[in-house]
């Protein structure tokens, strides 16, 4: 495709008002025994209502392959497209969220920090209740049932607190471990705490060198398409009181 044709395709996509709403979830269901409820827990009934809203209002939920294709060929993105993402890899995604996703026949993406697979969310100690994170077998089960496993780094560390070398290590090592253990390609990164670091240009270059095609922040509305920067995609922060209709229609 020539540069003229490419520019026309991008202009046409923007003129069509294509948007991608990336929804960012954490925990679905109740806190574990001994824990307490925080904003990051979404009751199962509320989660079902959020998924229902997408279906009833003609939002097309994409799988990872369709999302990656739309990055390369923006004209293939539906006008109202959604990507369902979960951070951290909590076991509630398998136990509570997955049956709901299967009911709607919706795919999703799960971002996991590799050092905590099979452990607990000690990176949030004191701020959030202790919760189990999926082990490798559980991640394989999720993957087999339509949930793509992608990178949330190694140690769940905020990028703005890391050196350039440490950021590169988080990107490279997490991708290598996930691909080796799960056998599928890792192409998308979710910045821990939504912290994209202090140098967006360097972060983009590091992500590209490490083999990633996109990266997600946390917070913000739907992304106009084509994305201005696929390495700083905004996500709707999803909680129990999120007015999904207002968030999507305002974007």
Describe the protein in words:
There is one protein chain. The chain contains eight helices and eleven strands. By secondary structure, it is α/β, with parallel strands linked by helices. It has one domain: Alpha-Beta Barrel (TIM Barrel). The strands form three sheets. Strands 1, 4, 5, 6, 7, 10 and 11 form a seven-stranded mixed beta sheet that branches. It is globular and about 45 Å long. The model is unreliable at 1-15 (pLDDT under 50).
Q: Name the average pLDDT.
A: 93
Q: What CATH architecture would you give?
A: Alpha-Beta Barrel
Order of helices and strands: HEEEHEHEHEHEHEHEEEH
Per CATH, the class reads: Alpha Beta
CATH topology: TIM Barrel
**Low-confidence runs of at least 5 consecutive residues:** 1-15
The overall number of domains is 1
Strand content: 15-25%
In short:
With 251 residues, this protein is an alpha/beta fold.
Please supply descriptive tags for the structure shown above:
251 residues, alpha/beta, two-stranded parallel ribbon, 11 strands, 38% helix
